[in-house]
Task: structure prediction
Amino acid sequence: MKNSAENPDSALRQILRNNYSQEHSKFDEQEFQQNWHLDFFILFGMLNRFVKMQHRINGGDLTMHMVVAEIWIYNIGKRLAASTSPPESEELATNEGRRRTLPKCNAYSISLALEMSPETVRRKVKKLMDMGWVERSPGGELMVTAECEKAYNPQVNLEIVRDFVATARVLMKRMNLKLEP
Result:
């Protein structure tokens, strides 16, 4: 079997399981540790900009962001992992389309994944439901709504990806890394 560097599908499967591809994470760690401040500053700056954006979008509640993000990652990640083709944006544009196609999760699994108390997750889920960002099925399963994604309108998503791409390119150049074909 090919390793994930030779098999991009394997790396993608790892990412869909909310992991990173260890094969794609190789770099000169010893050189990094000898003089890490600038490279880590570049990366940490991007991460901090992202956290500040999430703080603003989620009304100053980063715990709520963590809960809604974990539900979204579960819903979308399980859908992506279960299919050979990604969902069409039209399919996810309405709650009805989402109900038909997205796997749901429960609050307890979210509390385990986030290592938070079930009560904290329950309170955040209730608040998210009151905002219309999360929907609970009759069986109690959770799904992020199309309304939630409107807070991450195309401009917000573009800005996040632009920041990531710019940061990744600067770091890859500084660390003498090349993208694999």
